[in-house]
Design brief:
This protein has 377 residues and is α+β, with helices and mostly antiparallel strands. The chain has helices at residues 3-19, 244-284, 287-303, 307-337, 369-374; strands at residues 25-28, 31-35, 40-42, 44-47, 58-64, 67-73, 88-90, 101-103, 114-120, 126-129, 136-140, 147-149, 153-155, 160-168, 176-179, 184-193, 196-205, 214-221, 230-239, 341-342, 348-349. The protein has a 4-stranded antiparallel β-sheet with strand order 6-5-9-10. Strands 12-14-17-16 form a 4-stranded antiparallel β-sheet, with no helix packed on it. A 4-stranded mixed β-sheet has the order 13-19-18-15, with no helix packed on it.
Length: 377
């Protein structure tokens, strides 16, 4: 092709862009993430001004932005750059306006940017390159760990559900999941944004006592030569199912403890009462108890009315007075026994002898003073 022909072709493209600018359109994601050694899909849809054509009459290409002749994908494999051969392909139908491109075994230098070009095999051979709408790729060196969600405390005999999810940018090769525990597994896929996808895996099983204090691990494997497997682990604790024994055992234990405490308190109180009774018995036989009884008798005597009470009080005080007077009489009689009395005429005479009170037995009427004062000592 001569220089003049190329210039003419460029002018035709510019003219088409001006005239049909409102219908030559492409929708792409300008920035994409790609996991190194895995794959990435660049989402793309387009429109052209001519009448809708079948896929066989449409050619789609992807090329470098800075050089339209450096194709990373072409329907003629010989025109693809050596570094991209057998690594790129269209996964959409051009007849349905889908120009999405898959790049497999992503390399560190596959940054782009990349642009889409369409050619229509019509009478005029329409062509258009969307150099103003290209895709740049950000390289992810290490895969992200999956997110594991579940209740760590589960009920024995009740179904437990564990959810493991991961996001990616290669819907043509979804990540795969594996679980450390057996059970029913359901996997779902959904698009969360333009060019971003999420895959979820659900594990359902019935926990038993053997599962208590164990763990569940979710492992994700990415497409390609990604080193290692990303995993997430969560501990689980199984609560035993409530049965009749779980109700009776705590109840009986509580009643037994209450009964034991009650018996202990009963014996302590009984021993305490016995000790108090012994102390009271000792006090009743002592001198202080007898004095207390005498005091009560004396107070009862004072409180009594009539001649009997007055007589009792007089007899008590008369005992004290007579006992004192008796000692005085004895002393006076002893003195007088040795004296000789004289009368007129100087003739002595002797008085008749008065017996000493000591030689006679004393008889008191009323209360016995000694018994009342000293008791039965």
């Amino acid at each position: 092709m001569g220089v003049q022909a190329r210039v003419l072709l460029c002018w035709l493209q510019v003219l088409c862009a001006v005239v049909f600018g409102d219908v030559w359109k492409v929708e792409i994601e300008p920035k994409m993430d790609a996991l190194v050694s895995s794959c990435v899909v660049l989402p793309c849809t387009f429109k052209y001004p001519a009448q809708q054509q079948p896929s066989s009459r449409i050619k789609g290409m992807w090329h470098m932005k800075n050089n339209r002749e450096h194709f990373i994908y072409h329907n003629d494999p010989t025109r693809v750059l050596e570094n991209f051969k057998s690594r790129t392909k269209l996964i959409g139908s051009l007849g349905e306006f889908n120009c999405s491109l898959e790049i497999d075994d992503v390399k560190n230098h596959d940054n782009g940017p990349y642009c889409f070009r369409v050619e229509l095999e019509t009478s005029q051979k329409d062509k258009f390159s969307f150099v103003d709408n290209c895709v740049a790729i950000k390289m992810i060196e290490k895969a992200s760990k999956p997110e594991l969600q579940a209740d760590i405390s589960v009920e024995e005999g009740q179904a437990a559900v564990f959810k493991c999810s991961v996001r990616h940018t290669c819907p043509s090769h979804q990540p795969t999941f594996s679980w450390s525990h057996s059970g029913k597994i359901i996997t779902s896929y959904k698009q969360i944004d333009h060019g971003k996808w999420e895959v979820e895996s659900f594990l359902t099983f019935i926990p038993t006592k053997e599962d208590d204090h164990s763990s569940v691990t979710c492992t994700v494997k990415y497409h390609g030569k990604v080193e290692g497997e990303m995993e997430a682990t969560i501990p689980i604790f199984v609560k035993e199912q409530a049965t009749l024994s779980h109700i009776l055992i705590p109840t009986l234990s509580g009643l037994g403890a209450a009964l034991l405490v009650g018996l202990l308190c009963f014996f302590v109180v009984k021993r305490y009462k016995k000790r108090i009774a012994e102390l009271q018995s000792r006090n009743d036989n002592g001198i202080w108890s007898r004095l207390s009884r005498m005091s009560r008798r004396f107070r009862s005597g004072e409180g009594s009315s009539g001649p009997v009470g007055r007589e009792q009080r007089r007899s008590i005080w008369s005992r004290f007075s007579r006992r004192g007077q008796g000692h005085q009489i004895d002393m006076n009689l002893d003195k007088r026994a040795n004296n000789v009395c004289t009368v007129s005429g100087n003739k002595p005479f002797s008085k008749p002898h008065i017996p000493s009170p000591k030689s006679e037995s004393k008889t008191y009427h009323g209360y016995d003073y000694d018994d009342d004062l000293y008791g039965n000592v």
